[in-house]
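Throughout this review, each integer encodes one residue's backbone shape. One record appears below.

===
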Amino acid sequence: IKYMYAVEDLGSTNDFDFNDIVFTVSHVRGKENATVQPLAAGGVYPATIYFRNKSDEEKSYGEIHSKFGVETNVMVNTKAGTTKNSMIKAEPFLVKVGTEWSHTAYGESGNGFSVKVQIPKRKDKVVTPYVPGEDIAPQMLVLSENWLWPTEKTRISDAYTGFGEWGENYTNQTWVNTPNTNLVINWR
């Protein structure tokens, strides 16, 4: 099963486009490792993917921009008009998640995946998966593998008009099915 992780590195203080760090996680139940595929880096701060396993060992899997071979201030795969053929590619990597890992195993550390963002002159910001039902604005969404992320500076609520309804009722999952195709990256 493959899931898309869409991260907003600054929360609602800027563009709220959920393309600052985008990656998929593929895992087959019973296997020790999951495959992580970086897809986009729309933020300009150093951001590193981490995984914390059940024995509470946290491991860094590298800064997202470096996965694409670009400097931190370069946005990758978020510009309007980006297509599957024009995308900058990054190599997938393995993460040891354990045989029983699940994308919905929420708890203190979410489902184990997190992103740490380094903002100058501020404490590092740790972003974990949004737990449905929490009364906070999400900063990391775990979505279907086919989700299309918004273009740079496009608020998620403009790219997906049903996003606000989902915010009011998280059981309404249909918002992901109706993107404004002019405002998302069609990477499929």
